[in-house]
Amino acid sequence: MAAKKASFAQRLIAWQRTHGRHDLPWQGADAYRVWLSEIMLQQTQVVTVIPYYQRFVTSFPTIAALAAATEEQVLAHWSGLGYYARGRNLHRAAQLIVEKHHGEFPQVFDDIIALPGIGRSTAAAICALAFHQHHAILDGNVKRVLARYCGIAGWTGDKKIAAQLWQQAEALLPERDVAIYIQAQMDMGATLCTRSKPKCCECPVQGSCVAFQTQCVSALPTLRLRKAIPEKHTTLLLLMHGNNILLEKRAPQGIWGGLWCLPQLDDGNGLVSDYLQHNALEVSERIELAEFTHTFTHYKLHITPVLLRVANQPLQINQADRVWLDAAEALQGAIPTPVRELLKRLPSHH
Ligand code: SF4
Fold first, then answer.
1. In principle, which of 53, 89, 268, 318 could form an S-S bond with 116, CB 3.0–4.6 Å?
2. Owning domain of residue 310
3. Is the pTM of this model over 0.85?
């Protein structure tokens, strides 16, 4: 095992130095930026993350600045990245860091993992990359690499399989150069040992990779037996008064929690006519728009947008959680991707 460990880590580190990524904007940055990048990179690719990351650190250059922002401002910067709980947790964690750690990012693993939105692998990555501490990581990419390299079959989300992978991750961790090794694992998962068509012929550990040697690379990691994902239907109302659109703020929980959204009528949740009557809205024109589908991790949402031009802007809907906004202004706000797509298609938006 010792020889295998040395060769795996040493080969990866040597490969990273010549073939890895060295110009990511958060490389070599402080713990705040490393943390932010780690959270943004969960479920999201590097190319998508970079502009979001740059806008975020420009607006919130320090943990104190992030803590002092409103949730609304934070979510507006997250708008389009998806998985908004990440943005809300980041904001809450910044406030906790200010309260409990005087605004300095904590350096102790147990203090880091106690912050909202930070799991074992993310805490370990921050410790290793920002503070050069000795911790193994196991994110989605590393799970895939290790399942193949060590020949571990079974769904990696399964507790037993995850425990085996953690064991291997710990066992393969080198004594020195942990930060480069962690970066090497991330780079390798993103560029060589990819989900489909891995570039095994360029891989520095091909000679000791169980999956490659036994020709079962395409069978690992074992895919989860997926049930068909459920489908839901909903109607989104684009209520327009002149160039203004009615937006409603969602309750903090749920998939679009805390975001500004269009009024939504789910199956069995009332009719358009009831909504209009209840809110004393007078429709002057109704325009049917093409239905479209938005796919979340756990379900598909078929959206029927209905554009209604209204003749009035009734006073009773001018509340803190409902606003009439010009489409261009609304696009600057914390709105979910399907709403963004719809607003971009409106004839009044140039
Ligand atoms: Fe991944 Fe192929 Fe390298 Fe094995 S040889 S670690 S499967 S890229």
1. 89
2. 231-344
3. no
